[in-house]
Amino acid sequence: MQLNPYLLFNGNCEVAFKFYEKVLGGKIISMMTHAGTPMEAKTPPEWREKIIHARMTVGDWVMMASDAPPVHYS
Fold it and tell me: How many other C-beta atoms are found inside a 10 Å radius of the C-beta of residue 40?
């Protein structure tokens, strides 16, 4: 069985994934912000450059993540 973790961050997903890429030897496959997506109009301006979805491979593993808005992050 293989697990593919999905991580939630409080606004620092991009920084965290770039760090993981470096220290784990991974490769970021995609990293999308809210800007340019259908959700952009419903996203506060200060949150539009936050990550809506990121995907990284580390060997055979896949890690995915996004930034969770403060009201949804605990």
Answer: 14
Within 13 A of 65's CA, how many CA atoms are on the CB side? Answer: 24
Question: Residue-wise pLDDT tens for the chain (74 aa)?
Answer: 788 999 999 999 999 999 999 999 999 999 999 999 998 998 889 999 999 999 999 999 999 999 987 777 65
The whole-model pTM stands at 0.86
Residue 22, amino acid = K
Does residue 62 contact residue 53 with C-beta atoms inside 8 Å? no
